[in-house]
From TrEMBL:
Residues 1-19 form the signal peptide. It comes from Stomoxys calcitrans (Stable fly). Pfam families: MBF2. This is Salivary secreted peptide. Keywords: Signal.
């Protein structure tokens, strides 16, 4: 019985580790969408992609506070990119989200940033 419980725990943690959607912060009803960027890259054999999504874009200025960042994996089998928030984020005015694909897989993700 102990083996079965341990096995189920390990499998559930592995499944959570491969989840490809993420969110940071909390969106309120008064917040509005400031950036929606679709990132699509085709797979490269034995290589992986690393794509940065910056907010604000170079040459732009943002004076509004970020409340929430959502990254949606548009692949249905969780083979999409693993999102990471490298800098900035909620309660700041800038953000840098990195999307890193699995080896020999592409990227098909949507990044949304909400501000107040």
């Amino acid at each position: 019985m102990k083996f079965l419980t341990s096995f189920c725990l390990i499998v559930s943690l592995a499944t959570l580790g491969w989840a490809a959607s993420a969110s940071w912060g909390r969106r309120n009803s008064s917040d509005y969408l400031m950036l929606r960027e679709n990132v699509v890259r085709t797979p490269i054999r034995n290589r992986n992609w690393s794509v940065n999504v910056d907010f604000p874009k170079p040459g732009q200025i943002n004076r509004r506070t970020i409340t929430a960042i959502f990254v949606y994996d548009r692949f249905t089998n969780t083979s999409g990119a693993m999102p990471s928030l490298w800098s900035g984020g909620p309660n700041l005015t800038f953000a840098n989200v990195n999307l890193r694909s699995q080896t020999s897989r592409g990227i098909n993700s949507t990044v949304e940033i909400y501000v107040k």
